[in-house]
Specification:
The protein is built from nine helices and six strands, in the order βααβαβαββααβααα. It is α/β, with parallel strands linked by helices. The protein has a six-stranded mixed sheet, with helices on both faces.
């Protein structure tokens, strides 16, 4: 297979699954609409880079542990002929196309690139192909989905040959929303997401549930709206 340069792995859940795992609001409908909006907005940011996007939701993820599922996602991408891969989730509200382009450019000269989130985890992980397979065992055994992940990444992979992006907040709970609404830098992005949820309230909920969220290489229009106040109910 011909070698390609770089792709982004969008490692996400469907909106229905995400809304069941994370509780931003007390209302089921608002939670589901917010999950759909967050997933779609992140997807659009990835597509806006012009870099190939491989979207892998829970129906395509393989492995008994979270670490295995992420490692298998990398293996899938490298099996498609890419030289380097950048993996991101859907919950870094401050993630911009420029971060992804920066990561892609970094992987042309370094073997690994990481972006830490504000809770001690990681919102972005990138590897060159050879380095990934050298590091795969340690990678799978990292303390995934804990606030000790970033410390373990630093301990296992150090700083030599790596690139690091700016720290970004993640968006996993009601308290994260409240905190980010008070953040001058991130509040406009969050308000845009919340406004899109309000706009979606005129759409039947069954439409949101039935629409498939994971479609690789497709295009969506960005969701925009004015700043709003959003009730947690």
């Amino acid at each position: 297979m011909d070698q390609k340069n770089c792709a982004i792995i969008y490692f996400t859940r469907s909106s229905l699954s995400e809304s069941r795992k994370k509780k931003w609001f007390n209302s089921y409908e608002k939670n589901l609409r917010f999950a759909r909006t967050l997933i779609s907005k992140t997807r659009q940011n990835l597509l806006d880079t012009g870099i190939d996007v491989l979207e892998i939701d829970e129906s395509l993820q393989v492995g008994n542990t979270f670490g295995n599922r992420i490692a298998n996602a990398f293996d899938f991408g490298f099996g498609r002929g890419y030289d380097s891969l950048i993996l991101v989730g859907n919950d870094a509200v401050g993630l911009l196309p420029s971060h992804l382009i920066e990561a892609k450019n970094a992987l042309e000269n370094t073997s690994k690139v990481f972006g830490a989130n504000s809770h001690g985890g990681a919102y972005l992980i990138g590897f060159q192909k050879q380095e990934f397979y050298v590091s795969q065992t340690a990678f799978v055994q990292l303390p995934w989905q804990t606030n000790e992940l970033w410390e373990a990444i630093d301990s296992n992979f150090g700083t030599s040959g790596n690139a690091f992006l700016e720290i970004l907040p993640d968006l996993n709970s009601k308290m994260d929303i409240i905190y980010l609404l008070g953040d001058v830098k991130q509040a406009p992005k969050l308000n845009e997401l919340l406004a899109s949820v309000v706009a979606d309230e005129n759409k039947p909920l069954v439409q949101i549930v039935s629409n498939r969220d994971s479609i690789a290489f497709h295009q969506l229009k960005p969701l925009r709206g004015p700043p709003v106040r959003f009730a947690f109910c």
